[in-house]
Amino acid sequence: MTTVLAEAESSSTKKGMFMAEPVTPAATLIENKGDMKVKMELFIMKIQEEFCRALEAEEDSGMKFHVDRWTRPEGGGGITCVLQEGAVFEKAGVNVSVVHGSLPAEAVGQMKARGKELDGKNLPFFAAGISSVIHPRNPHVPTIHFNYRYFEITKDSGEKMWWFGGGTDLTPYYLVEEDARHFHSTLKTACDTVDQGYYGKFKKWCDNYFLIPHRGERRGVGGIFFDDLETPSQEHCFQFVQSCAASVVPSYLPIVKKNKNEAFTPAERDWQLLRRGRYVEFNLVYDRGTKFGLYTPGARIESILMSLPVLAKWEYMHSPLKGTPEATLIEVLKNPKDWV
């Protein structure tokens, strides 16, 4: 972390380790270098840069991410990186947000529903997170989503509550079991590095969280998902988040490289767009992060809705024929498998 702090202190952050200058002023970062808020901000900015550069390397045209550094009047801001209409990635978004202010009543209610003991109004909060969704053009390349976040609230008593949340999950349009096993195996290794009990627990949580109830199917083949992680210690939880976030590139990029040049038919493209419709349904109806963003005053809607694809499709009463690759995928989405 010392190297990252030095980079933040220098004037070269725009062209150095990060996609843009940190949200928090460099002097404040240096002054508070031991604070978890600072550690998390610098870490997610480094992950953003690494992932964006890895994706850019897959675009033979040399296409680069558009970098949008924004501020939130109520406190904080973020860096939104979007690559759109590439040869490989139809839309790729990697967003970092570092925001603070007063917690809106709707967000308090959402947290109380998860068992958080919060009293009072307009509670001071801090949230730092990285969120990414990648929508490839080729239907033989799956979509990936990952999100890692740190949250801190100061109660009326002055007591501070904190927790981490996040996860990584894969949404294929055509099931390639070898790819699913590689993806899950990489995540399991990242989990086992910190706690060998995490993968099984968080894999099951992921399968349950990404259920689309009105469809009776999962969004994809899962991965890991966790929230409200606050034990056994703050440093332990942070180490786990670091391990998981660092596994995103090795879990996903080999799958992209393997499949990005596969030939595909118009019918396969139509199926991809139909499955993207399911993705949209989940994100707008059920996703916690989307809800929190929409509840937060001064939220940047473009960044919140960055996860949505450029194109999606809905057809009345569409159902794949039995015995087809499309039907094979649906079977796994309805009945999650153990991949490792």
Automatic annotation (TrEMBL):
<dbReference type="GO" id="GO:0004109">
    <property type="term" value="F:coproporphyrinogen oxidase activity"/>
</dbReference>
<dbReference type="Pfam" id="PF01218">
    <property type="entry name" value="Coprogen_oxidas"/>
</dbReference>
<comment type="pathway">
    <text>Porphyrin-containing compound metabolism; protoporphyrin-IX biosynthesis; protoporphyrinogen-IX from coproporphyrinogen-III (O2 route): step 1/1.</text>
</comment>
<comment type="subunit">
    <text>Homodimer.</text>
</comment>
<dbReference type="InterPro" id="IPR018375">
    <property type="entry name" value="Coprogen_oxidase_CS"/>
</dbReference>
<protein>
    <recommendedName>
        <fullName>coproporphyrinogen oxidase</fullName>
        <ecNumber>1.3.3.3</ecNumber>
    </recommendedName>
</protein>
<keyword id="KW-0627">Porphyrin biosynthesis</keyword>
<dbReference type="GO" id="GO:0006782">
    <property type="term" value="P:protoporphyrinogen IX biosynthetic process"/>
</dbReference>
<keyword id="KW-0560">Oxidoreductase</keyword>
<comment type="similarity">
    <text>Belongs to the aerobic coproporphyrinogen-III oxidase family.</text>
</comment>
<dbReference type="InterPro" id="IPR036406">
    <property type="entry name" value="Coprogen_oxidase_aer_sf"/>
</dbReference>
<keyword id="KW-0350">Heme biosynthesis</keyword>
<dbReference type="GO" id="GO:0005737">
    <property type="term" value="C:cytoplasm"/>
</dbReference>
<dbReference type="InterPro" id="IPR001260">
    <property type="entry name" value="Coprogen_oxidase_aer"/>
</dbReference>
